[in-house]
UniProtKB/TrEMBL annotation:
One Gene Ontology term of the molecular function aspect: signaling receptor activity
Phylogenetic lineage: Eukaryota, Metazoa, Chordata, Craniata, Vertebrata
Record-given protein name: Tumor necrosis factor receptor superfamily, member 9a
Keywords: Disulfide bond, Signal
Signal peptide: 1-19
Domain TNFR-Cys: 61-100
SUPFAM superfamilies: TNF receptor-like (SSF57586)
A Pfam cross-reference name: TNFR_c6
Biological-process GO terms, alphabetical: regulation of cell population proliferation
Paired cysteines (S-S): C79-C92, C82-C100
TNFR-Cys repeats: 61-100
Gene3D superfamilies (alphabetical): Tumor Necrosis Factor Receptor, subunit A, domain 2
């Protein structure tokens, strides 16, 4: 009795396999006469021939080093080989291609990471496979992104532009209320001491006075130049001769 049950179980299993050709390659097919024509192979398989007596014989698994990721491929493709500045993240399988990444300091050049480019830092942007500084009037505060134009106005209506942006940051804004909290008075001069200048910055709540004293000037020194005795004697002789000649 047990032998008969085992035989029946094996027979039903074989029937199930024969009725489910998805696991054997062909995923969709049309009945044509006494045979079948395959419309799409199961992922990881390629088409052997379009039509035949049995649908399960129309597709075969991809060979090692090849893959078929979708049922519409019907043919296997060569697995990608990561090279150069690329690194392999995931190995190729019969249903998926190799997944490549980039070495440190490099970034994928496209969505499929088929090549790598040098990673651009903040203040730069990708350009023709390399990096260039953000043009004047633009900034970039992220890694390997396009530079963006500076804002032309502050995000809030009660703010004013306090400083323009640079290659790394956008414009800087400040609340108008903070600008009005400091009152600056003109320079005042202490006439009693011309070397002392007083400037006053007067916040509304806490006046402070800053005094700047210039250092006094240095005394003027007078140097006397004395003639040596020989030169003095020569001049006296010349003067005596002049007096004698003019008598």
């Amino acid at each position: 009795m047990s032998v008969m049950l085992l035989v029946m179980s094996l027979w039903l299993l074989l029937q199930g396999c024969a009725c489910d050709p998805v696991n054997l390659g062909c995923m969709e097919w049309d009945h044509v006469g006494d045979g079948a024509c395959c419309k799409a192979c199961h992922p990881g398989h390629r088409l052997v021939r379009k039509c035949g007596p049995r649908a399960i014989d129309l597709c075969t698994p991809c060979e090692p080093g090849t893959y078929a990721s979708t049922f519409s491929d019907n043919q296997c493709k060569w697995c990608t080989q990561c090279a150069g500045t690329q690194v392999q993240l995931e190995a190729c399988t019969p249903t998926a291609d190799t997944k490549c990444g980039c070495k440190k300091g490099y970034t994928c050049g496209n969505d499929h990471c088929s090549f790598c480019v040098r990673t651009c830092t903040k203040g730069q942007e990708p350009h023709d496979g390399s990096c260039r500084p953000c043009p004047n009037g633009t900034f970039n505060d992220k890694i390997h992104q396009k530079c963006k134009p500076w804002s032309t106005e502050c995000p809030k209506p009660n703010q004013r532009i306090a400083a323009k942006g640079d290659a790394f940051t956008d414009i800087k804004c400040v609340d108008v209320s903070k600008l009005n909290s400091v009152v600056t008075t003109p320079l005042s001069v202490d006439t009693s001491d011309p070397k002392t200048v007083t400037t006053t910055e007067t916040p509304v709540s806490d006046p402070k006075t800053v005094v700047k004293v210039e250092p006094p000037g240095e005394d003027i020194k007078v140097f006397c130049l004395c003639l040596c005795p020989r030169i003095q004697t020569f001049l006296e002789a010349q003067l005596t001769s002049f007096v004698v000649l003019n008598r």
